[in-house]
Design a protein that fits this description.
CATH topology: Rossmann fold
Radius of gyration: 18 Å
Number of helices: 9
CATH class: Alpha Beta
Bound molecules: adenosine-5'-triphosphate, magnesium ion
Number of strands: 10
CATH superfamily: P-loop containing nucleotide triphosphate hydrolases
Largest sheet: 6 strands, mixed
CATH architecture: 3-Layer(aba) Sandwich
Distance between the termini: 35 Å
Strand order of the largest sheet: 6-7-8-3-9-10
Shape: globular
Strand content: 15-25%
Structural class: alpha/beta
Order of helices and strands: EEEHEEHEHHHEHEHEEHH
Length: 258
């Protein structure tokens, strides 16, 4: 027997279809992007400067809209009527943590989203404590975010998003400006989470370490979609899209994720 309603676990976390977008000044940044990310997948979004990565990310929770095509998150179309629900489901960690931390204490910053969504009292406290514990920042709950180091603020920014229990976690350059230990610790955190991840990064070893699959966005279209290791070993593809591995780095020498 067939059913018109798809089984929930079969619905992808993200379905981008024919997405095209021009900025108000007329500059077209996306030319028909198709991308499906299954539930629980970790996918790296690679591509040169100006490829359209951030433009694509900003469509995932409706910050940008009005172009052609569609975006669905767990089956729900991203449009004005359900923006509040979409923003609960899509957790975006921006490149600069200061873009999302604005409260007097870490605890209040992490509580902000869940409180706006209606959580109160002990339930809200539990949610905040859990998110801070997940990123190893429980001891910093009562500190002002602006007294923390960059790496600590990045972790708190991740906690503000985790507290919403998103369907998909989207990170724009998560490893930038982190020291090697913080970079590794963030990788451990991401690996330990049971959540769909889309990670924009120029840090190709990080993509290889964390994401089995990578997508190359170039000139506003998806130029390649496949196993990260295969992509990074394809010298012609790498050159064509201005992707470069660090000197001496051999993608074959790294164990695949999971
Ligand atoms: N507000 C804007 N108005 C007009 N054009 C814009 C605007 N923001 C971005 N663009 C253009 O859209 C294109 C895609 O930009 P986008 O920021 O999405 O690239 P990106 O892949 O995130 O690059 P990077 O790796 O440098 O972060 C670029 O050509 C850029 O100049
Ligand atoms: Mg960008």
């Amino acid at each position: 027997m067939t059913s018109a309603v798809p089984c929930t676990s079969a619905v992808p976390s993200l379905e981008v279809s024919g997405l095209a977008f021009a900025y108000p000044d007329g500059h077209q940044a996306l030319f028909g992007v198709d991308l499906t990310v299954g539930r629980g997948e970790r996918v790296a979004l690679l591509g040169p400067n100006g490829a359209g990565k951030t433009t694509l990310v900003l469509h995932l929770n409706g910050i940008l809209d009005g172009g052609a095509g569609s975006v669905r998150v767990a089956g729900l179309p991203v449009d004005k009527r359900n923006l509040a629900e979409i923003r609960r489901r899509v957790g975006i960690v921006f490149q600069d943590p200061d873009d999302q931390l604005f409260m007097p204490t870490v605890r209040e910053d992490v509580a902000f989203g869940p409180a706006a969504a209606g959580l109160r009292g002990a339930e809200l406290e539990r949610c905040v404590d859990k998110a801070l514990a997940q990123v190893g920042m429980a001891a910093f709950a009562d500190r002002p975010p602006h007294h923390l180091s960059f790496g600590q603020r990045r972790r708190v920014a991740v906690a503000t998003v985790l507290a919403m229990e998103p369907e998909i976690l989207v990170l724009d350059e998560p490893s930038s400006n982190l020291d090697p230990a913080s970079r590794r610790e963030l990788a451990d955190i991401l690996r330990s989470l049971d959540v769909t991840v889309l990670m924009v990064t120029h840090d190709l070893p990080y993509a290889l370490e964390l994401c089995e699959r990578s997508v190359v966005l170039s000139g506003g279209v998806i130029a390649e979609d496949g196993p990260t290791r295969e992509l990074l070993c394809d010298e012609e593809l790498m050159r064509a899209h201005r992707l470069e591995l660090p000197f001496g780095f051999d993608p074959r020498s790294v164990a695949v994720p999971r």
